[in-house]
Each structure stands twice: as structure tokens, then as C-alpha cells.
Amino acid sequence: MSMAGNLRKVTSLGGVGGLRKVARLARRRPRVDLSHPARSPLGSSVVNCVTYRDGVRTAARGDLVDAVESVRKKGEGFVWLGLHEPTDREFAGIAELFDLHPLAVEDAVEAHQRPKLERYDETLFAVFKTVCYVEHEELTATSEVVNTGEIMVFVGKDFVITVRHGRHGSLGPLREELESDPHQLAKGPSAVLHAIADHVVDDYLTVTDSVHADIDQVETEVFAETGARVDPGRIYQLKRELLELKRAVVPLSRPLEDLATRPIRVVDPEIQAYFRDVSDHLLRAKEQIAAFDELLNSILQAHLAQVTVAQNEDMRKITAWAAIIAVPTMVCGVYGMNFDHMPELHWRYGYGMVLGVISVACLTLYRGFRRSGWL
Q1: Within its chain, how far is the Cα of 229 from the centroid?
Q2: At what angle do helices 172-179 and 189-222 cross, to 10 degrees?
Q3: What are the pLDDT digits (tens) for 273-302?
Q4: What DSSP string runs through 224-259?
Q5: pLDDT per residue over 23-49, tens digit each?
Q6: Where would I find the H helices in 223-349?
């Protein structure tokens, strides 16, 4: 069924009133930043719905259906619809209106997807993992360092639909930045897709820099000469958080490569050069993550080696003191036996001589162990 046919079908459905109501709510309320847990002050998943022509935002007239009809009738411009964690019911009318593939719709609603790029006829579906650094006063074995979310993007010839999951990664500032550059925005929906990809990858670099600071702190403490023991759980926690960051960054390489090199109908050829730049930034983030992983392995091995050395030193000290204590124990044990005929048993100076021999022997052993570093 064609786009126009789907549009007529949607406008004739009894449930289109719900779609129009959601669109009116999005148009009436001011733009909000949904970085907080609450999705929307009005209880709707729609964050914003805007029409652009020649890279310029046009005045809102009518609802979402009217905006789509106007864009398709004039054959220019596009609609950008922003959603935050929509439900199946909220997304059903939108999916019908824009003829979105059911599998892509399911992924957009359910979330928890790997970064990917899929093509469904005239529609492009991209998934990005968003990340943010969680500030903390002190890194512990249970500290959350990296928090992740998702942005799903539907790109068509005359529309962009962004579906965001998570408590961070608001696209409000990005939208304003794009609107300040009408020349770039005039290149169509693919310009929005590039801006989102660039925004997500820039966040990767920001988070890796912050994680680097945590790794430097742990490394400094491990090799500090204060004698304090470092909790290895902190190192393992950093490795776990780094793995979470790796799951967001590494799978995005293939989608960006496809966007930068393969011809795609809904992607402006001029935009492909910009995707190559984003791919270069992603490569830098991947290299940093790989380097951090190796560094954490080295720090963990160094910490375990320090623990082993400390245990060996403790064992040497215990062994040295046990050897020193063994001398008086042996002598006293011999003279503690109840025999009548023992050397020097009834000698007046025998007690003093035995104490002197014990003292000299213990002092000799102590100096020998100190000279060898055991004490």
C-alpha cells in the first residue's frame, strides 16, 4: 500500500482522534528536557513535532496528520517527530501514518537493542546507544560510572522520527543547534540523522575522558608508596563499566561505515562525507576503550603482584622471628628434661652462661635477618 493510501486509511480510522490529540498536546506545550525520570508533564510520549522547509522551522498549522499532508502535497520539507519511551498504543497510529515496518516498530518500543542500521523499503531505521558519565565523589566497588540509553531514528524521504529511551540524551539542544544552521538542515532528514550520530559519538569521547580520570586515580593509588591496600573491587567495577561502554561503541562501526560508503536513497550524498568524519571519531573512542581495557588489566596484575609481594614479606618476617624464638625454645627444652647427669647442671654459673648463649645466638640471628632484608 502506498504512503498516500496509508494516509487516507489513517485519517479515516476511528482511532485517528487519539493521534490528533497527542499531536495537539505536543504542539501546545513548551519544549521540555526529558533528562529527568518523568517522561512528560502532560503524560504523553511526544516531545516535539516540527515541520521544516528549506532548513527553516515553519509555523505549526493543524496536527501531525495535517503537517504530513502539507509536506507531501508540496513535495518539499520534512516533519521531525520526537518521542520519549512511547507505548505500543501511543505508537500504533504513528506507525500506520508513516508506514513503518512492524519489526522496526517493535524494536523502537521495546528498546534494549544493539546499535544497528536496517533498511525497510523507503525507510531507514537506525539504533544508537547513548551514554553519560555518572558523577561520584569516590569510586567504590559498587559505583555506577556509565549510564546507557537508546535513540532509535526512523528516516524517510519527508520525515524523521526519533524515539528516545533512558533518562539522558535529550535532543532539545541538538534541535536548536541544527535550526541555527539552515543550510545544513535544508539537506533533509539525513542531516538530522548525521547530527544525532555525531552527537552520540561526541558523548562517547566525553565519557571516555571522564573514565580515563577514574583510571588514573586508581593507577596512582595502586602505585602509591603509602602502604595502603587498594580494593580490587574498584578495578573490577571499572572493567564492568568499561564493558558497558564497549557494548555501546563497538557495534556502531558497521552502521556508520554503511552510512558513509554505501548509497542509500534517503541519505543525501553530501551528508555521507560527514558520516565519514563521525566514523573517524568513533574509531578514536574505540581505540581509547581498548587501551583502557589493557591498562586496567595491567593495573590489576600489578595490584595482585603487590599483594603477593606483601604476603611474601610477611611470611619472611614470621619465619625470621620463628627462627629466633626457636633458639631459646630449644635450649630451655633441653635443660627442662629431668635427668640427674646433665652437663653443667650443678655449676654455679651455668644459668648465666645459658642465658648468655641464648642472647648471643638470638642477636646474631636478628642481625643476620636484618642484613638480608627479612626483618
Answers
A1: 28
A2: 130
A3: 899 999 999 999 999 999 999 998 888 888
A4: -TT-PPPPHHHHHHHHHHHHHHHHHHGGGHHHHHHH
A5: 443 444 334 343 333 334 334 678 888
A6: 232-249, 253-261, 269-335
Residue with cell 636484618: 370
Cell of 84: 520519549
Q: How far is CA 35 from the centre of its chain?
A: 16
C-alpha separations of 355 from 321, 322, 359, 360, 369 in Å = 18, 18, 6, 9, 21
Is residue 181 within 8 A of residue 168, CB to CB? The reply is no
* DSSP 3-state percent helix, strand, coil across the chain (nearest 5): 60, 15, 30
Cα angle, residue 81 at apex, residues 180 and 107 outer, rounded to 5°: 125
Contacts of 189 (CB under 8 A, 6+ apart): 78, 80, 155, 156, 157, 158, 159, 160, 266
Instruction: Please state, rounded to an integer, the average pLDDT across all residues of the chain.
Output: 80
**62-97: pLDDT as tens digits:** 678 888 888 888 888 899 999 998 888 888 888 888
Q: In what order do the strands lie in the sheet with 46-53?
A: 56-57, 46-53, 78-84, 159-165, 146-155, 123-133, 116-120
Cα–Cα distance, 104 to 118 (Å, whole number): 8
The label of the residue with cell 565519514 reads 276
